[in-house]
Description:
Elements: E1 3-11, H1 18-23, H2 28-31, E2 34-41, H3 47-57, E3 62-67, H4 72-79, E4 85-90, E5 96-97, H5 99-109, E6 116-124, E7 130-133, E8 148-150, H6 151-154, E9 168-171, H7 172-177, H8 190-195, E10 203-215, H9 225-230, H10 232-249, H11 256-280, H12 288-305, H13 323-330, H14 336-357
Amino acid sequence: MEKLLSIIIPTYNMEALLPPCLDSLLVPETIERLEVVVVNDGSKDQSLSIAREYESRFPQCVSVIDKPNGNYGSTINAALPVIKGKYVKILDADDTFNTQALVQMLNALQKVDVDFAVTHFTILKSDGTTELAKYNLYGKEPYEYGRVYDLDKGLGDGYIRFFLMHAITYKTEMLRQHGYKQTEGISYTDLEWDTYPLFYARTIVFFDINLYQYNMAREGQTMDPKVLIRSVGQLETVTEKILNYLSEKGVEDLHPSRQAFIKQYYLNRLRLVCKSHLFDMPRNQFDAAHFAELEAHYQQACNELELGEIKLYPENKIIRANAMKYWHKYKKRWPLWFEKVNTLLNIVMKWLYVRIFRK
């Protein structure tokens, strides 16, 4: 029996967080329309037994795939061929869904036939505060919620720079038809989930639903700045993978608006890797020789793929200094005092932005 929505939950040593994750999904209003697939990635704790217990309690809804450890991408690759839902969404085991929003999401999906659905999400921070992430621009709502758009036209207005996994739901058959697979053995392959379907999805819908509750507060979370800096090599590897995908697929046969979006999307992704080295990495860990090689490679790729120039400005919109230009001239990062001023301004302006536009 086909379900409306399949939720893939990659799980590795999440015994404390897996129950609240599953509890956020499994209510009477969802069970008939929802499929939950927990993929145990060789956990060494009690994650598998917890998943099995939920499987026995909700056999019509929950199933478990138990496999050797292969990291994030391997869990998605294991689940995609067997899920039964018309649509598919990923939920990390340390995160949750807003349960009432999930009911709303199921009701909304029943009314459309679309390749790509986008919802809001909440970021739960380590200091106890939250931030609502919406695909709007300075408070403007550019899309009519619930309306299905041709993706070429929807991407042509310039509001969106890139999508994140937490916001995305795909039509399952679309992924299968195009042989979607993620890289195995490393982290940050959700970047591929965000990227590859942009080349072939045809339609998109935006829902005014705050579904995903993204837990940035957990120690060891992969997007924790400390973890990200330690694992920046894996981020570089995945970035190289998506660059290769762009090179192999090309954009020549795509609509001009989609071409422009994808090129800008890739440029922003390269910019974020450069930012991790020039802005985020502790100065005593910064390897100038490695970054020089990496940046030269990215610039070459930008030239070959006609992406444009990598520019790196502070987030605060007050300091309009291009860190890449400084790097090219001096082959080093900004002075320490300048970095401290920039960081402080970033914090202040982000605080203001959230309170003005993310209420």
